Amino acid sequence: MPDGTQPRQTNTLEPYWMPFTANRQFKAAPRIMVSAKDMHYTDDQGRQILDASAGMWCVNAGHGREKITEAIRTQAGVMDYGPAFQWGNPGAFDLSARLTNLFPGDLDYVFYANSGSEAVDTALKMALAYHQLRGDARRTRLIGRERGYHGVGIGGTSVGGISNNRKHFGNLLAGIDHLPHTHNLSEMAFSRGQPDWGAHLADDLERIVALHDPSTMAAVIVEPVAGSTGVLVPPKGYLEKLRSICDTHGILLIFDEVITGFGRLGNPFGADHFGIVPDLMTMAKGLTNGAVPMSAVAARAGIYDTFMQGPPHMIELFHGYTYSAHPLACAAALATMDVFAEDDLFNRGKALAPVWEDAIHGLKGLPNVIDIRNLGMMGAVELVPREGAPTTRAYDVFLKCYEKGLLVRQTGDIIAMSPPLIATEEQLGEIMSILAEAISETE
Ligand SMILES: Cc1ncc(COP(=O)(O)O)c(C=O)c1O
């Protein structure tokens, strides 16, 4: 009998069941990164790979920032772990003060988790509990959006709008509905920044509210810019309408800022960029520059206050994680906030955005390119799908990019990019010239 000490497989790549990966294809031709510094990865062949996607939308300050590394190292030597429930660690309080100063409006409180998925499920649970505590327990309905990505928890999967992510997992949560997505090639292809067309798509929320009755509605969750399904930029006026409809009907608005947070749009948050204060705001990724898993939910003061009732010895929110506000993550996040400030990175993102816009729109006219879109330091190039073989064209472009030393993300027939905010104008040019070659060489 195997006792677990003998590897069952001879292929050393085999035992790792990789997430969101075509395991068999990958293991036949692996892409393995072994180190990273500034704008580049180094792969196991010793090749330099220019990072056009900040890892997975998270390394906003570039790789291997010494200040962050040092903070993690130091904290590990001082206190490795601190119990999260009924105990605190100094970094958690320092970080909360720091973050709430950065948040817009009266988002004055912050709750910690470890991933974007956990932050989303936390925010959804907060919304449900908030209404219940206010004596409005019928408000249980959660509204997401088609093509939305809110991670992989059952809550996030349920409000998410990606069929492949949903279809294998049964009925998911009950009481969910979805807004239509905002992407329409015939109306908005090749828009620079926010498309002029499409604000009326937010009116669908009125339809959904009328269908289910406002008294059953708990929260609407959207990404200010949908990232994972290929940088779907909200039409002008669309998010403002969502905010106003939510206000009219007493529905909480949740912005999922896991990608758009921490400078991606040239402001601390997408909420700042659009001038809209959500009721709850999730964040992760850039919070620690990707160096230690950490996520958070920001809550408006009125929401926190609603929980602070009943006998003071009672726990107000029966929710949390063993690793909420982990000392290493807090240290990494505090150092990350220092780096953002010292390098003035949010303003740098803002200054680079027009350069990025010109660079990416320069790909117009290349074979099979049917749309190019951008906002802040996010951008995507959409390709016409191959007849009968959707996604394979963009995958081939993604592979060619890697062969040529460029890391991009592929989603469907879309190449999505979000370079670290430290990128130079020359590096943005380099990204586009490699991508242009890859697109041109792909049938
Ligand atoms: C908007 C959004 N929400 C949630 C998540 C899930 O984050 P995680 O993979 O850290 O669970 C992501 C990940 O890309 C995301 O883009």
Question: Can you give a write-up of this model?
Answer:
This protein has about 450 residues and is an alpha/beta fold. Helices cover about 35% and strands about 15% of the residues. The chain has two domains: about 25-60 and about 345-440, Aspartate Aminotransferase, domain 1 (Alpha-Beta Complex); about 70-340, Type I PLP-dependent aspartate aminotransferase-like (Major domain) (Aspartate Aminotransferase, domain 2, 3-Layer(aba) Sandwich), CATH 3.40.640.10. It has helices at about 25-30, 55, 65-80, 90-100, 115-135, 155-160, 165, 185-190, 205-210, 240-250, 270-275, 300-305, 325-340, 345-360, 390-405, 425-440; strands at about 35, 40-45, 50, 105-115, 140-145, 175-180, 215-220, 250-255, 280-285, 295-300, 370-375, 380-385, 405, 410, 415. A seven-stranded mixed sheet has the order 4-10-9-8-7-5-6, sandwiched between helices. Strands 1-2-3-13 form a four-stranded mixed sheet. Helix 14 runs parallel beside helix 16 (about 425-440). The radius of gyration is 22 Å and the shape is globular. The model has no long low-confidence stretch (mean pLDDT about 95). Pyridoxal-5'-phosphate binds near residues 149, 151, 227 and 258.
How would you describe the shape?
globular
What would you report as the Rg, rounded to the nearest angstrom? 22 Å
Please tell me the CATH architecture of the largest domain by its name: 3-Layer(aba) Sandwich
- The CATH homologous superfamily name of the largest domain equals Type I PLP-dependent aspartate aminotransferase-like (Major domain)
The poorly predicted ranges are: none
The CATH topology of the largest domain turns out to be Aspartate Aminotransferase, domain 2
Q: Structural class, judged by helices and strands?
A: alpha/beta
Describe the strand arrangement of the main beta sheet, using strand numbers.
4-10-9-8-7-5-6
Bound molecules: pyridoxal-5'-phosphate
